[in-house]
Amino acid sequence: MRKSIELNKVKKLIPISLKGFSQVMLIENALSGALILLGITIHSPLLGLMALISSIVGTITAHYLHADKLAVSQGIYGFNSLLCGIAIMLFLQNDWRWLITPVAAIMAAVLMFYLSKYTAKWKIPILTFPFVVVTWIGLLAAYQVKGLKINPEFVATSPANWNLPIEGTPHFFLALIKGVGEVFIIDSLWAGSLILISLFVAGWRYGVYAIAGTFISWLTAISLGVNSELLNMGLYNYNAVLTIIAVGLLFDDKRNFPLVGIFAAATTVPISAGIELLIYPLGLPALTSPFIISTWLFLLIRKKIVQRL
Questions:
Q1: What is the CATH number of domain 163-309?
Q2: Residue 48's closest CA among 33, 59, 62, 58?
Q3: Can you tell me the distance from the alpha carbon of 258 to that of 307, in angstroms, rounded to the nearest whole number?
Q4: Of the CATH numbers 1.10.3430.10, 2.130.10.10, 1.10.730.10, 2.170.270.10, which one belongs to the domain with range 7-146?
Q5: Residue 221 buriedness (CB in 10 A; 0-12 / 13-18 / 19+)
Q6: What is the C-alpha end-to-end distance of the chain, expressed in Å?
Q7: What is the C-alpha separation between 169 and 286, in angstroms, rounded?
Q8: 260-303 tens-digit pLDDT
């Protein structure tokens, strides 16, 4: 009897943890999460395994913190944890990352739990803020601790990549596929393709939002003179994809969505430039911070407008 109860808990834990993958894209869909996990696993089986473990760890942590049961069941406490797990596995290069990965997952879930109590009053979603904070702190610590070696392939985007003559040919579809993959810090056509498919599986509008967000940020980045190689890697559109989905889902007045969503997606590009200029001397990547700032900005603007009406 006891074994059947434990098995039942595992059966619930796996779908919830898969929802954590879809929640990165602001979607609650276990099937979409499974497709995203598949894409990550095809890119790197080890990375896929550690991402799944991180999502499970985040979910279990939230359970023991007595977090809101509905939020836990929706995978809300898994997505920041799994992003932290992916970041640790990619950015660090030593044996310690096996221990650091679950610790980072726990930290992300704990941070989200306590921040939720405050942001709920302001009706502002936390989004990927815990992931960004935990990852930045981890990288800063790694630069100071000799035992934590930074992966030599990891290079923070330099502001020198802005305002350069565009070399080569920008490819929209390449930027689209790789851009959605970069949401998970992965440069892979396979992963990007499956993540894009997962959006359409959840609902056609999510896929359309991703395409629209990519196109808007793509044009904005070109007008600002971004290096084509970095543009084709999707480094300047993944924040726009997240932002246009967030604004499209969180703004109640759908009549204003086309204009507001387009503007919100476009602002992620100059915001990325400003953030990268600010944190580049520290050797940190922007990650999803432009998405957070742009979404919070437009939600606050919406709140002010509604109060005046």
A1: 1.10.3430.10
A2: 33
A3: 22
A4: 1.10.3430.10
A5: buried
A6: 58
A7: 25
A8: 888 899 999 999 888 988 888 888 899 999 999 999 998 888 77
